[in-house]
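Minutes, project check-in
Item: structure for the 295-residue chain
Input as provided by the requester:
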Amino acid sequence: MRMRTVPLGLLAFLLALPAFAQESVVTATIWVDDWTGHHRGKVLLRKINGRWWTDDNREVYAPGKKGVFWEVDSKPDTCLFHRHRPFDLTHVSWLHLWMSPDDVEQMLGEPNREFGPRGQGFWYYYGADGTALRVRFMSGVLGEADYDKGAKTWPVDSVKQELDGRSIYEVMAERATKKNDAARRAGSTNSSNVPASRVGHSSHSQQASIIEVPLSAAGGAPPAPPEPISAITAAALASVKIGMSREDVLRSLGKPTSRFSVVGSDGVTEYLSFQVEDGRKITIRLLAGKVAQLP
């Protein structure tokens, strides 16, 4: 029997059909006190894909056990919203480090929401059961990919295996060092082929190149050893409250395993990640230097 090959673009489209076949469904609505805390009346929220949303499609988090107000995750026009249509999470295991936004979009399709500029921010894909896929781009490539289901987050297996217990910053530093070493070897090989009579003279036929050099390879005194990062206790995490200042968070929890910030119209949104002793990896979101969201 003759076999026919299928173009990659068509294959991606066919695999995405289950996601396209579903449409968003409002499963519940609720009137709540104004989540800004200014008591301006009631706000109608809709529950879609297991999550609550404002009428202009910003996600809202329900108050905790001792909380009062519902909390919106962003101010208007700080994220790019595409659709509520639920995403099929079946093919998430295809994600890998260093994929470009174009690669991810060709494989998984357009995200439900985008935070930050393309290639330097977060993409969110929402499943029908309330599970979200959060893809983080760093310097134009995929650096992290996690599942998020309310109070629980966990990494995508394929990306977790590539990190192999290291932070993305350690892996990026190692990658930069290897690129630098390869460039050095290539430069050494090229210089050995230059005739002695031409050594020290310029050549218009040579092309300049920019080499990425890690900070540790720069001249001057050797860098100080990195500050050790310890796992935080559940008790320390419980001491962090909404509205707490950034300084108090760092005083209570210590240095985060990673941090990322996005500048929007409402100020700087910062994400601080920590490793908990029980094995969880949690992220705390700060807005304008104050805790805005807890895991």
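Outcome recorded: Helices lie at 8-21, 101-108, 157-163, 168-192, 234-238, 246-253.
No further action items on this chain.
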